[in-house]
Amino acid sequence: MDSEKNVAQSFYEETAISSGFFILKFNNESDDNQTFKREVNSNFIQFHFCIKGSASFLFNEGNYTLPISEENSLLLYNPQRDLPINLALEKHSWVLSVLLPINKFHGLFSTEADYITFLSKENKDRKYYKDGHVSPSMAIVLNQLMNYNLHPTIKPLYFKAKAYELLSLYFNRPADADVEQCPFLADEDNVSKIKKAKQIIISRMAEPPTLQKLADEINLPLNKLKEGFKQIYGDSVFSFLFDYKMEVARQLLATGSHNVNEVGLKVGYSTASHFISAFKKKFGTTPKKFLMSLNA
User: What's the order of all strands across the beta sheet hosting 44-52?
Assistant: First the structure.
């Protein structure tokens, strides 16, 4: 398969991180659904992340379907049979996948990583499937991989670092274990309210409500909002919002259509100095230097 395939406003791009270790990017900005196919043998473990929109993985000639929606992930592995990718990507959707051989995957972890179920000896030769939620930290890395502006010679190193970062964040989710044990989150109505809270703060990121007002708006006690949000998204409400705002700011700057002051106002900073300080705290550089690096 070609390393890059364009269909109208959709594309497929494959980047080799190292021998047998790949990042696949599926982008469909067209108004039609698109299908992408790639052979993958039984030696590979597959991680799939839906960054935007929704998609479905088709298996057994379309007789079995695994859907994946925005902000969700799938881990797939079957040592008994090949699992070729047959991805039906809906319009205006993005999916990023990581493929690596199982022996290389095991080599990434120390023998002490017993808390990762997938690495346990009894699961070593079993097929494995897991769906999960994309945390804000993972979403930032995924967006960095989808939208980057790098010199071609730097791209392989950058992608390799981001692939390792993504896998580290994927497995650094102890909150996952707690969700099943938390009676509060077993109630779908409560989970729905927490998700609504996330949508509210995102839609009003420039002027977010206080935690108490947010709790009142979704009709949950304040302590349940705090606990539930951390359980589902792995972070406090305002830490999550900070990460989100900084990622939006980074993307706005990268378009080249806004100056630093405009971007700061769009994400809720009334003074440029506060925005510059926040941006530097998150990315280790100032917005101006970030802009200069894009044009270097």
Answer: 4-7, 10-18, 21-28, 93-101, 44-52, 72-77, 128-133
